[in-house]
Amino acid sequence: MTNIFPPFDPDDSPRRRRVNQLRSIPVRSIVPNLVTLLALCAGLTSIRMSIELRFDAAFAAIFIAAFLDGIDGRVARFLKSTSRFGAELDSLTDFLNFGVAPAILIYVWALDEIRSLGWIAAMIFAICGALRLARFNVALDDPNRPEWQANYFVGIPAPAGAMTVLLPFYLEQVGVPHGLLTAPLVLFYTLTIGVLMISKFPTWSGKLVGRRIPRESVLPFFVLVVVYVALLLSFPFETLAICTLIYLGLLPVSWSTYHRRLAATPPATSPEAAPHKEP
């Protein structure tokens, strides 16, 4: 009987593919993809909740998708099961979770009040998310790039863009009134975040910070994490609004520190230095 679901791995050569057909696939190889698919389910659920005007549930689904997106790559590296298939699946999932789902939520919540203009703004944000991810997929790292540049992204990453664009929604949940100017202001803000996602604005990522923690800082770190999670569970929208405002406030600082370090970098080390490209 012909197998209607033949195994597929884009990393395999024809010879290697014939060999792989004779052996089973270890479970550890599919666990990261299952995590990614769960994130995709969360994003699709967010779209449904937005259509049903259940905005809290829609946002919760996006938040869950962001959490799963943050761990699937780490799970793949931990289990040594990274693959091109997983990378492509993760990219497509990110587009839906951090491009389409937030755009639908922000449109149904506020932008539909200005009809076609609101829909155009939502589409532009989603398209910017797609372009942001596409640029990451084709980006090649410069082997001569200084290590400090790995601490910066090119533009706002897609997950951060999704959580940042929802700031007006957070503010309404903590008591900011929804008035006649809400939709126009949200339109302008949504377009601004979309442009920042596809721009070359260097944004601090902190990837090089925290890889190792001094031994004396381990216990305070645990306490800070517990306090943050407790605040997030007890006062979710207040915590997210404050964190988003802090993130936006750090953007000029990121720009300044990046260009200051770039000016101090010898030209031979980085002839055309560019921030680290991440989604």
What does it look like?
With 279 residues, the protein is mainly α. The chain has ten helices and two strands; from the N terminus they run H-H-H-H-H-E-H-H-H-E-H-H. A two-stranded antiparallel sheet has the order 1-2.
Which sheet architecture does the biggest sheet show?
Answer: 2 strands, antiparallel
Instruction: Quote the beta fraction.
Output: under 5%
Strand neighbour order, sheet with most strands: 1-2
Strand segment tally? 2
* Helix coverage percent: 55-70%
Q: Order of SSEs, N→C?
A: HHHHHEHHHEHH
Task: Note the main attributes of this structure.
single chain, 279 residues, mainly alpha, two-stranded antiparallel ribbon, globular
Layout of helices and strands:
Elements: H1 14-20, H2 27-51, H3 55-78, H4 84-109, H5 115-138, E1 152-154, H6 158-165, H7 167-173, H8 182-198, E2 202-204, H9 218-234, H10 236-264
Antiparallel strand pairs: 1-2
Helix pairs in contact: 2-3, 2-4, 3-4, 4-5, 4-6, 5-8, 6-8, 7-10, 9-10
